[in-house]
Amino acid sequence: MDMLRGPQIAAADLTDWRKLAQGLHARYLVDDFAAGARFVVAVGEAGDAIGHHPRVSIGTGYVDLELVSDDAIYRDDEGTEYVVEWVTQQDVDLARRISGIAADHGLTADPASVSEIELGLDTARSATIAPVWAALLTGSAESQGRGSPSDEVRDATGRVPNLWFGDDDEHGAEQATPRQRFHLEVYVAPEVAEQRIAAALAAGGTVVDDSEAPGLTVIADQDGNTGVVCVDVSAAKQG
Hints:
Order of helices and strands: HEEHEEEEHEEHEEHEEE
Distance between the termini: 29 Å
Shape: globular
Strand order of the largest sheet: 9-8-10-13-12-11
Number of helices: 5
Structural class: alpha+beta
Mean pLDDT: 94
Number of strands: 13
Low-confidence stretches: none
């Protein structure tokens, strides 16, 4: 099934859901664990009907859901096809069904609270170092390039954040203190990005690059360590 582009996801108007990184994310508020469990059972039955299920996490007062297909088809500019992890029509359809189930259970969605963390590592040798990180993070070499046409490391069970590799030059011998290579990518809902950035600044952080805002805003702490607030602008409903 073809992966959906951002504008297609935005056009679906999934009010309970937000597109973060590769998937659709939702949080529903529940009174207690039992209510959350009953909701998850109903969601599971809906997933059984189509052979597709969300990733689920239950905590105190909430149920978090992520929908992503592990067999989405991506075509590059040359027409080469890749099997990737991404949102497809079956995710959109199930998201709508889950929203209906939540309404039947009297649950309230809290889409502004969803978030996703990924790790970024700048390197000139991703193919060389990726096996080390695949083994270290997941214990399996198969995690390298899983669900991605790149060397990105993704754990099939979602135990650890995804690790992707950015382009970088080798550190020169003249560099006594190499610059930061690791950083965090913090994906948030579009409506809270400004608030998240403001909170970081109020805590002493500074904006070091907002040239790609609101999609990407790089924040540095007082020691110069950076993280990135990320918003999938293309998948956000406009107006």
